[in-house]
Each structure stands twice: as C-alpha cells, then as structure tokens.
Batch of 2 targets.
Target 1
Amino acid sequence: MMAYSGAKEDGREVKIYEYLDELSTDLAEYISELSEASVKERGVFAIALSGGSLISLIRKLCEAPYSKTVDWSKWYIFWVDERVVAKNHADSNYKLAKDAFLSKVPIVPSHVHSINDTVSAEKAAEDYEFVIRQLVRTRVISVSDVSDCPKFDLILLGMGPDGHIASLFPDHSILDEKDEWVTFVTDSPKPPPERITFTLPVINSASNVAVVVTGSSKAEAAHLAIDDVGPDVPPSPAKMVQPTKGKLIWYLDKAAASKLDCTKCSE
Ligand SMILES: O=C(O)[C@H](O)[C@@H](O)[C@H](O)[C@H](O)COP(=O)(O)O
C-alpha cells in the first residue's frame, strides 16, 4: 500500500511507498503511460536514463503486460549521464541498462544513443550534444519553446546521498552551466571521475522528470531537496531540478522519505 501521495503547491508530486516492489510496479506503469501518450502525440518516445539503482527499479517494464503492450519500436534511448569508460566496462551506465533492461525488450538498436567511448570526456560530451542536436532537428526529440533546449519526453534520475543527480555534484561550477546541453567532469567525487552529463537547463526543459530515491542513506538529502528548508541552506543539485513547464514526480521508499517534514506522510 502506498503510504502517501501528495501534490505540492508548485506542481511537484511526491510518492512514497512502503515496499520497493510497489514502487517499481507504479514506476513501470507511469513510464508506460507516458510512452503511450507521447507516441500518440508525437509518434515517438524519447527517454533519458541515469545509472545506479534506478535501472533495477524499472525492470518490470521487461515483464508482462508491458513487454507486450509498450510500443518499443517508437522508443529512443539516451543517457542523462554516463561514465567515460568502455561500453563493456563494469562501470558503464550503457552496459548496466543494456544488460538489465534494453536487451530484454525489442528496442531498435539504432534508436539507442550511447556516448562515443573512444574519446576524451570533453570530446564525448561534444559528440553527444551533436547527436542530440541532429535528433532535435528531425524532432525525434522535441524542443522547448521557452529555452530552445531539447525537451525529452521523460528524464529518469537517481539521487546520491550528497544530493547529486545525473553527474551534477554539489558545489561544482557545472551547476551554473547555461549554454551547453551536455557537459563533462573529470573530478567526480563518485568514481569513476570522468563523466558526461546533461546540464540543468536540459533537465529542466523535459516534459516529465522522475527522481527515484530509495534507502535511508538518502533520507537527509531527500529532506533538503523536497522540503522548504529556507534560504540559508544552499540548494543541492536535486533541489535545482525544477522543470519549467514539465511535471516532476519524486518516487521514494519509506526509508528515503523518513526525514521529510510532510505531516501527511504518516497518514
Ligand atoms: O552514473 C551515475 O553515477 C548515475 O547516473 C548517478 O547519477 C546515479 O543516478 C546516482 O548516483 C544515484 O545512484 P544510486 O541510485 O545507485 O545511489
């Protein structure tokens, strides 16, 4: 049973689940509904994945009914962030998604847009932005009418205990990046150090963003990102996820939600 689902004043929704199994069932249903709506509206579904625990939480999409009901041929896959390692390396977000998800559903191989793993982080970010530009031009990826940024149908994020999302880490100058769509870091505090990442303007231009957070190690970061903690606490990267026109949903398990202020959470 879901413990709590509440819409906040600013259009965000926070969903809290007693059991991981329920969270992942609901998440699969949510993704399949967005896919259906997007295919109906635009003929395609452009989704960007992160790495980490998120991937195992979307695994139900590979099972019935979704394995059969989702229009996989219309899916285009991107990575919100990627570690700059070979695609067959254990640290690769591509490999993680491929092994646990993409290889189990009939996605068209040419619709899977992973990074160039043979070049530097800087060049990989540049190449990836170029790929995205081409697909915006042909409207495989929609475009935001407010920011000129790509408008992904869905961006899926995890969050670290330090409040990072994608490869946007706290107190990093990358958080101020306004011009690039995809940028790089060579000093990630979470290994491996070299990564490429979507920038905040791209994340905040998406039609839908879901932040999926589980486990007690993330409870404090979830509280700081979701609750109103006043102007004295500098916003974490996760708090800076505020889609301009899109919809934001937080999917939390009970442990990750254990430090939220919300009074209704225990109802
Ligand atoms: O490449 C990465 O490291 C991920 O894309 C990263 O942004 C991840 O989503 C968070 O670190 C949460 O990871 P966990 O859910 O595994 O804690």
Target 2
Amino acid sequence: MQDYKFLKNINFPSDLRKLSENNLQEVSNEVRKEMIDAVSETGGHLGAGLGVVELTVALHYVFDTPNDRLIWDVGHQTYPHKILTGRKSKIKTLRQGNGLSGFTKRSESEYDPFGAAHSSTSISSALGMAEASKLSNKLNNIIAVIGDGAISAGMAYEAMNNAGASKTKMIVILNDNDMSIAKPVGAMRTYLAKLLTGKIYFSLRETFRLITSAFSKRFSAKAGKAEDFLRSAVTGGTLFNSLGFYYVGPIDGHDLSTLIPILKNARDSKHQGPIMIHVKTQKGKGYSYAEKASDHYHGVSKFNVITGEQVKSGTNLPTYTKVFANTLVKHAERDSKVVGITAAMPGGTGMDIFAKDFPKRTFDVGIAEQHGVTFAAGLATEGYKPYVAIYSTFLQRAYDQVVHDVAIQSLPVRFIIDRAGLVGADGSTHAGSFDITYLSTLPNFIVMAPSDESELVKMINTSMIINDKPCAIRYPRGNGIGMELPSIDEKIEIGKGKIIQEGKQVCILSIGTRLEECKIAATELKNKGIESTIVDARFAKPLDQELILKCAREHEVMITVEEGSIGGFGSHVENLLSEKGIFDKGLKFRTMILPDIFIEQDSPKKMYDVAGLNASQISKKILDILFTKESIKVVKN
Ligand SMILES: Cc1ncc(C[n+]2csc(CCOP(=O)(O)OP(=O)(O)O)c2C)c(N)n1
Ligand SMILES: CC(=O)[C@@H](O)[C@H](O)COP(=O)(O)O
Ligand SMILES: [Mg+2]
C-alpha cells in the first residue's frame, strides 16, 4: 500500500464522510491508483471499476451505507467499493483462493447487501429491499447501480415495469459508459446515445439546479408542470419517465461537484416512486491504456502498470473456444444455413471470429440469454442451423426457453456451451456445474462433451447433421491439450463412446476433459498392479448402453467421472445399471461428480482438488472401493 494522503485513513465510508467535499477528487485519485496497483498483481475486472471511482466515492459520501443499501449490478465494478468498505487491506487477494471475491458477496461484507455476478438483477433486488423497508418503516435508502449493458436484459425491464407502477421510493443509477464487455447492441443503446447527444445543460448550471431542486421543493401544479416540461425538454428522458421513473440526467459521472448535489437531492427527496439518475462515465477512466483499448480492459491478466502490457498465458495451444470458432467458420463457408448467436459475449465465445467472416450471419442479442435461445429456435423453424454459444452458467437463465421453445418442439438448435466445469477466479457464480444435469434430463436432446480439442471438432462436425433435434456440446475454459485437429468431415456416431485402453478389474467411464486425469489415475493404479479400462463416453445422452453394459458385466469396479453435478452422466449410468439389474450381480459402482457445495474461487486445479476430481483422488477412490476402505457414515439426529 502506497503512502496515500487520504486513503491511509479511510477504512470505512464513515471515515470518508468526515472529509470535506473538496478532498473527494483526491480520494478518488488515490482509490484509482490503489485499484490499478492491485489488479496489476491479481488480474481481474479493471475497466468497469475505473469508470465508477467518483461515483463510488460520491455514493458512500452521500448515503449512509450499509444502513442505506447499495446494490451493484454484476458486481464486477466493485473493487473501488471494496477498497472503501473495510476490504482495503485484502484488495490484493482479489479472485484468489481464500481471498476477496471479484463480485459482491453477502458473506464477505455487510456493505454487500446483495450478491451478484450474473447481470441485471439489481433493480429487482433493490425493489424487494425497498418494499421491505417500507413495510417495516425503516426509511433507509435503497440504491441500485446498473450499467448500460445490464439494463438491456429482460430482467431489468421486468423490474422497471414493476417498480414504475409502485409508489415505493428507490434510486436507480444508470451507469452509461456506452460499453458492455464489447460494444453494447440494440435499440436501448441507440436510445441512450440519443439522450447523451441531446444534452444541452452540461454547462447550464441554472437548469441543472432547477432540475435537482424538483426532488425536494413543492411546486404549484402549474409550476410543477412547467418544471416537468423543462426537465424532459432538457433531458429527453421520456422512456424512463413513461415507465414511471423520475428521470434525471444525463450527468457527468466523473464530476463530483455535479454528482454530490444530485445524489443529495435524490436522498432527501420525498418522491414516492422510483428515481433514475443517468450518469455518463468512461470505462477505464484514468488509466491511459484502459481508456484507449477497444475493450477498455474489461478483464485483464496481471499487467505491467507502466507499459500496460498484460502477462500472456504460458501456452500457445489454442483454446477450446477458438477451436470451436474456427471449425464453425469452415462449416459456414460450405453451408449458408449456419448462423451464430451470442448474448453479449462475442469475444468470450469465439463469435467475434465467426463475425469477422460472416457479419450478416452473426447475431449479438445483448445480455439476453432467454431471448437468444428462443430467437435461435425461430431461426431453426425456418431451416437455419443456429449455433448458440453461451457460457454454461449463463444458459441457466434460459432454461425454460431451452425446454419449452427448443426441446418440446425438437428444434435443431445447436448449443455450444463454453466455460463448462470449474472456471477458476470468477468462482462459484460462473462455474458451469449443472448443464449436463439440466440438459440430459430433457427428451429430444443430444448432450456431448469432448475430451480434447480434436474430439470437439468431430462433435461440431456431427452437430451439422443433427437436423431433427437439439444438441449441446460442452467444453471448459482454457486451452486444449495439443491434439492435431481432424478435418471437418470426420464425424462420430451418435451415442457411441470410445475405448481408450482396456484392462480387467476396473472400468473408468469418463466424460469430458477429466479424461486426462483418468489416464494418470490409471497409470497410478497400474503401478500398483491394477489394470483399468478407460472409456471416453462422449455422450451423456444418449448413453452408449451397449458399451456401458458390456463394461459393467466384465469388470469388478466401475466409476464414472465428470465435471458436473449430481443428476448428470453418472446418474444416468447408475439408472441404466439399476434398470438392467446389474447391481444385483455385485458390480461395485461409484460416481465421481462435483460435490453438493458451491466451490469458492481458486485456481481450477485447486478447485478440482476440493471437488475430489483430480487424478490421485480418482485412483484413491478406486483403491478404496477395491479394498473396501470406504466408510458409511451414519448421521444421528
Ligand atoms: C446473465 C449474464 N450474462 C452475461 C454476463 C457477462 N457480463 C459480465 S459484465 C457484462 C457487461 C456489462 O455491461 P455493463 O452493465 O454496461 O457494465 P460495464 O462493464 O460497462 O460497467 C457482461 C455481458 C453476465 N455477467 N451475466
Ligand atoms: C463479469 C463477467 O461475467 C465476465 O466478465 C466474466 O468474468 C468473463 O469470464 P471469462 O474471463 O471466462 O470470459
Ligand atoms: Mg457499460
């Protein structure tokens, strides 16, 4: 920690509130410096936090947090908030094992009244708190801060629809930096841009005072109407006004002399209903490299503060994401029906690569996973081959659309599920733990998981000819293992697994990229004289029943291994074996799955250690089964 003039004495917002308003810009500068310094060592979300430093300082200065509830949407912009709310000394533990979360987390601090990481939840949760506050006569303020990206999602509209009709006071700060992770998309973006270009009052202090005073002053009906007219003429905030919000803005979110009086007015206002304050900020503000970069350093690895250079990953192997994107491009060159869909994650899903060659066949729907899935279903009804590339964790949002709009109608939507399994620094909110489970339970679905990048290509090739039902291919974050890639003509038979090696006593049925750990486990067992068969199951649905039953009959022990929760591949195998009466014949069977806990952020390797899914844990499990050391714990009430 550097020798800061103000920050050294600020641990909590109460310390901040003792300062004069004139010192707050200096405080902001110090917070910004501290944040850059910390993220240069930890990596993480940089641009969004840099853009809200002044806003964070102003909010904690004006409002009585934590009694007043401050809810940050997504939570990736909360590093300045963490520095000012008792977590300064731990800021260099961000996103590491036993360290601070990269998002808001109720268990981490009373200043985080609502946990987040998935977007667009802030207005709903704030309205819930506001209604609770009203019911219990608490009279505290409830403030939600939501970005221009996050406000594009369906949930935000549902919340505004509800809030706008209520007579409950809450404050929504719309943090408009004209950025999502990539450039934001859609009509809302155009609308917000219009509000910004239409502004004329930035220099008109008198107009500004008139607007803000409307919160607290009592106007005669006539004067009120005139004020309303002036406000909307000046600000053009008609959409939000029409939705029932008292709209103010846009204002400069880096100018504390504007922010503080407006926030004070909103705080003291007797307005019964939601207030929206539209602030204009710059993502990456105050760090030249972030300001200039096209992504404004949304998410960075460790970097050199002086040069802005980020540390590259230690391998040149292509990521699964890239392998997917490059393969899809090749198919799209041949087949004009191939289209790609992303929900605001073009870079993360590889859709940016596809978009370069096929801009007209790429659809970025914004942070709108639900809409994206049903939109793809619509494309499928017209004979297109939609590839919906979504992170496993974000597809959770669209489960009903997957069931109702895709599976029931057996539409051939191809789900490309990235970030499956444990992802590391983003932690439990971003873990792709449940997709095998929630998709394999659905009739009409084919669910595949490649064990390496070559298998991924074959599965994409196969998906091209699945034209009568939906399918999903799930793979992890990060790099492949260096396999040579096959041609785009090489397919696999649907529902057929692959024997990797044959042994006698033990059969390991693996699905997905834990296969490498299974191979190491098998070598460890071999060193102890135990021969194992390894099967790459490839399909969680349909199961390769023939192969699984054969293996079950020919081995003493069978285990399944997957990077997924209960209810997935292992559960389906267990059900099959039970149905076929295999257990009656004495097979020793276990499933190795993600445990029934949310695993905290750490390196993926350590997270898999917690999950018990690394090689030594697989071999130990097998040895314990063979030599019956497993104990049955009976929990007494
Ligand atoms: C449901 C969901 N989909 C996608 C994401 C990934 N994501 C994280 S931040 C972000 C952009 C948010 O943009 P905005 O709200 O404008 O915040 P900014 O980063 O610009 O401050 C996206 C798409 C997410 N967190 N949640
Ligand atoms: C905040 C958020 O949801 C994204 O920025 C996410 O952290 C990206 O994860 P990847 O780094 O795996 O693309
Ligand atoms: Mg934004």
